[in-house]
Amino acid sequence: ALQVTPVALERAQQHQQKTSQEDTVVTSLCTDEEAIDACVQFASHHRILVEPACGAALAVLYSERLRTQLLESNSVLQQYPKAPVVVEVCGGSGVNVDLMSMWKDEYLTSSSN
After folding, report:
1. What is the Cα Rg of the chain in Å?
2. CA gap 93, 55 in Å, rounded
């Protein structure tokens, strides 16, 4: 799916409410292109198809812009350089090779023009 569902937002809000003051949750926004590119790269690296909503989470690992913004330039994360970075990978039931190819053509081919 190309949009975050209400269920996903509810889960994120529940997680935020459960998070203690000691925990740090860092958030950011990615472009559609970054999300699709992350899906394509993840599929290539791990042979697992995921939807763009998951690609948005993976984008921090694959996008130079987001990686710099969140992992290298974030003062909170710099305080804990060996802290784990957790990215939840889910959401492959609504994607197939044809959809992935269509998204790649629509979002990645047109962005390079």
Report:
1. 15
2. 14
* pTM exceeds 0.85, yes or no: no
Distances (CA, A) of 28 to 55, 66, 90, 106: 13, 8, 18, 23
Give the separation between CA 84 and CA 72, rounded to whole angstroms.
Answer: 14
Phi, psi of 23 (to 5 degrees): -80, 150
Contact at 8 Å (CB) between 65 and 25? Answer: no
pLDDT tens readout for residues 42-91: 999 999 999 998 999 999 899 999 988 877 777 767 777 787 778 888 87
CA distance 14 to 82: 26
